[in-house]
Amino acid sequence: MSIVILIVIAIIVLFGVRNIRMQFITRPVFSFFKKVLPPLSSTEKEAMEAGDVWWEGELFRGKPNWNTLHGYGKPTLSAEEQDFINNQVQTALTMIDDFDIVHNRKDLPPELWQYFKEQGFFALIIPKKFGGREFSAYANSTIVAKIATRSVSAAVTVMVPNSLGPGELLTHYGTKEQKERWLPSLAVGKDIPCFALTGPEAGSDAGAIPDVGIVCRREFEGEETLGLSLTWNKRYITLAPVATVLGLAFQMRDPDGLLGDVKNIGITCALIPTDHQGVEIGRRHNPLMMAFMNGTTSGEDVFIPLDWIIGGPQFAGKGWRMLVECLSAGRGISLPALATASGHVATKTTTAYSYVRQQFGMPIGHFEGVQEATARIIANTYQLEAARRLTTQGIDLKVKPSVVTAIAKYHMTELGRDVLEDAMDVQSGKGIQLGPKNYLGHAYIATPISITVEGANILTRSLMIFGQGATRCHPYVLAEMEAAAMEDETSALDRFDSLLLGHIGYAIGNALRSFGYALTGSRLGSAPVSGPTQQYYRDMTRISSSLAIMTDLSMLIMGGDLKRKEMISARMGDVLSQLYLASATLKLFEDNGRQQDDLPAVHYVMTERLHLAAKALNDAIRNFPSKIAAVLLRVLIFPLGNHFNAPSDKYAVDLVTGMLKPGPARDRITFLCSDVEGDESGIAEVEQAFLAKYAAKDLYKKLKKAQRSGHLKSKLPMLELFDQALEKDIITKAEHKQLVEADVLRLAAINVDDFDKI
C-alpha cells in the first residue's frame, strides 16, 4: 500500500510541480514533438487556416454534444425560394428534353439558355442589390437537384455559375468597382462566367499550377500601367466555350521587385473578359457525351492591369485561400445535389419498376435478390438527402466547413454512383437502352464526372478528409504545432506546457471512455432522445472516442509519416465520415418529426454506417505499423471483438416492403422528382403504371385466389386472364376496365425505345 501511495505522490509531483514537469516531461516531449511534426507546405498551411471547424469537430474529439447537432434547426425554404421552385423551376423542367439535348443538339436549346438567363438561374448566389436571387445554399442545392432529375447537362450548366467561379469570388472578395461592373451583368446572363484552375500539369494538386503572371509595366488604354503578363494553358473548364468573362488562377511573380521584396507572391486570381486581346478559348471537350459546355482556354503574354486581380492588388498572392474557402462551399452544394438527384430518381423509378415488372408470375420486387439491391438504393437515398440537408445547413449558418464539404463531396458522389449501379442492375434492359424514355442512362454515364472533378475522390479520401480533419478538429494539435513554430524557445515551451496537460487528460479520457463503452455495449453513453434511435447515439459516442484515441496514438507514433500512410489515413477519415453521415441521418429523422414509417430506412442506414465505421477502425488497427500499439488499440477499442454487423436481411425486406407502395415515406425521399405538367418522360410513365397497378392490388389478389382454387387457369397472358375472369363473373366490367387500363400502362412502362437507325 505504501508503494502505491509513493507512486501516486511521485506522479503528482512530476506533473504538479512546474519546474519538475518542465524538465522531465515538457522539454523532452516538446523536443520529440518537433522531430515528428509533419511538415506543411505553404498551400497546406493555407488550407489548414482557411474555413471553419463545425460539427465534424464535435465528432472528432470523442464526446459529441448531440444537443448541438439538434440545435442547428431544420433547413427550410423561404416563400420566395419556394415560389421560384414552384414556378420558374417547374417551367424549366417542361422545356428539357435530355435525349434531344445530348444526342441531337449537343447543347441546351436556345430557348432554355434564354430562360435560364432571364429568370436568374445563373444568379442564385448573387446579392439582390446587384440583381441576383441571393438564395440559401439549401435552395441552391434543391434547384440544381430538381433540374438534375431530368438532365445532368442542364443541371451542370446552372450549377457552375453558382459554385466556384467569378460570381462567388466577386461576392466574397471583389472590390466595390469589380462588383458593380460584373455582378449585375452576371445576374441577368448578359455575361457568362467560367473559372480556369485546372491544367495539364495541375489537377488535384492545384497548388502546383504552372501558369504564371509576371509583374511588369506596359501601355494599357494609352497609359503606362503596372500590371501582369499572363501565360496560361487550362483544360476541363466548364462553360469556357461560351464564357464572356474568365476567372483565372495563376502563380504571381515579381522578379524585378516592382511591388516590393517578395519575388514569388503566390497563387492569385484575376477576372478577364474573354474578348480581351490574347485570350484564347479553345475547342470543346466531350465529357462522357454530356452536352454541358466544357473546353480549354490559353493565353501567352497577355497583359492585364493589377486592378483586374479579384479583390484588387491587396489580394495578390491570396488566391489559394480564396479558392479553398469558396471551393468548400461549392463542393458542399453542387456535386452532392447531383448525387442526391440520382438517388431520388433511382428510388422512385426502381420501386415503381420492380412493382410493375413481373417475372415467374410475380413482381420482381418480391424476389429477395432484387430486394437486397433495392434496399441499398432506398437507404442510400435517405442518406444522401440527410447529408444534403445537414451540409447545406452548415453553409447557410455562414461557416466554411472545409472538412465537412470534403466528406460530402467524396461520400455523396460515391453513394450516387452506388444507387445508379444498383438501379441499373434491377431495371436491367430498361436502364441500358438509351432513348427519350430512359431516365437512368445519362446519369449513369455521367457519374465518373462527379467522381473526378473538384478534387479527385481517391485523393480527397486519402489526403484531405483525415489529413485536414486530424489537425483542424483536434483541440490541441494545431495549437501545439503553432507553439513549435514559435521563434522564442522560452515562450514556445511555456505555450506547449500549458497545452500538454490538457492534451494528456484529453487522451486519457478518450481511452477510458472507449474502453468502458466497449465493455458495456455503449450503455454508459448519453443520448438526447429515448426510443428506437437512442442506442445509435451511444454507439456513435463510443466510435468517436475510439477515433480520438487512435488519432492521438497515430500522430505520436507516425508523426509526419502519417501523411504518407495514405491507406491508414483514409480509413481513419472514413470513420469520421461515417459518423458525419450517421449524424445527418439521425437529424433528418428528428427534423421529419420522428415518423414511424421512416424507421426502416433509419435502422438500415445507421446499422450500415456503424458497421462501416467499425470496419474502418478495425482495418486501421490491423494494418497499424507498430504491432505493440496495435495490440493496445485493440484492447481499448475492441476488447470483446467487433460486433458492429452489416444490416440484416430482415432490415432489407422490411425497408423494401414499406416502399413498394405509395406513401409519405416514399414521397419524402423522392420529392425532387416533381410532377411536371404534360410530362411524357419515362419517370412519369413508370410512376403512372405503378400507381394504377397498386390501385388494382385487391383485384390482382382476387385473380390469384381464383387461380389457386382452379376457377381460373394459371400462366395465362394478362389480357386473356382478365377476359376469363369477366366471363366467369369473378370481376365486374368496371374492374375489368381498370385492370386492362393498368396493364396498358404497365406494358408502356416496361417497354424501351427503338429506332429506325442510330
TrEMBL record:
Top class in the EC scheme: oxidoreductase
Residues annotated as domain Acyl-CoA oxidase/dehydrogenase middle: 194-292
EC annotation?
Answer: 1.3.8.7, 1.3.8.8
Q: Where is the Acyl-CoA dehydrogenase/oxidase N-terminal domain?
A: 100-189
Could you tell me the superkingdom of the organism this chain comes from?
Answer: Bacteria
Q: Which intervals hold domain Acyl-CoA dehydrogenase/oxidase C-terminal?
A: 317-457
Q: What is this protein called?
A: Acyl-coenzyme A dehydrogenase
Q: Which Pfam families match?
A: ACDH_C, Acyl-CoA_dh_1, Acyl-CoA_dh_M, Acyl-CoA_dh_N
Q: In which pathway does it act?
A: Lipid metabolism; fatty acid beta-oxidation
Necessary cofactors: FAD
Keyword list, A-Z: FAD, Flavoprotein, Oxidoreductase
Domain Acyl-CoA dehydrogenase C-terminal bacterial-type positions? 471-755
Q: What catalytic reaction does the record list?
A: a long-chain 2,3-saturated fatty acyl-CoA + oxidized [electron-transfer flavoprotein] + H(+) = a long-chain (2E)-enoyl-CoA + reduced [electron-transfer flavoprotein]; a medium-chain 2,3-saturated fatty acyl-CoA + oxidized [electron-transfer flavoprotein] + H(+) = a medium-chain (2E)-enoyl-CoA + reduced [electron-transfer flavoprotein]
Family in the record: Belongs to the acyl-CoA dehydrogenase family.
Q: Does the keyword Oxidoreductase apply?
A: yes
Question: Lineage from the top down?
Answer: Bacteria, Pseudomonadati, Pseudomonadota, Gammaproteobacteria, Alteromonadales
Q: Which InterPro entries match?
A: Acyl-CoA_dehydrogenase, Acyl-CoA_Oxase/DH_mid-dom, Acyl-CoA_Oxase/DH_mid-dom_sf, AcylCo_DH-like_C, AcylCo_DH/oxidase_C, AcylCoA_DH/ox_N, AcylCoA_DH/ox_N_sf, AcylCoA_DH/oxidase_NM_dom_sf
